[in-house]
């Protein structure tokens, strides 16, 4: 099932909903998806003071591209803080998080299925 065709529309027409996991301060707006797990385009919001430690370190079986629109977040495992204007591209199986933010953070994410082989990673 492909994603829906959508002409420009206000994202605030899509409700914020709780994300999976144990952190109620982490919410998402699913802008479009396919109905398959992990294949979505979304806004992800970390409320000020969010700590995703209860969700642990994440890995998943899909690609994830993330652009930080507002605020900042710290990867507690790496001890690094990432800020607005920064971008990440995570292949399937890449560990990331947990995250914490004092000021809050808003990201734009595209998650998709794609073949991932060791050869794909070495060509970057």
TrEMBL record:
Any Pfam family hit: Cupin_7
Indicate the segments forming the ChrR-like cupin domain, all copies: 11-108
List the InterPro entries hit by this protein, alphabetically.
ChrR-like_cupin_dom, RmlC-like_jellyroll, RmlC_Cupin_sf
Protein's recorded name? ChrR Cupin-like domain-containing protein
Which species is this record about?
Answer: Ruania alba
Upper classification of the organism: Bacteria, Bacillati, Actinomycetota, Actinomycetes, Micrococcales
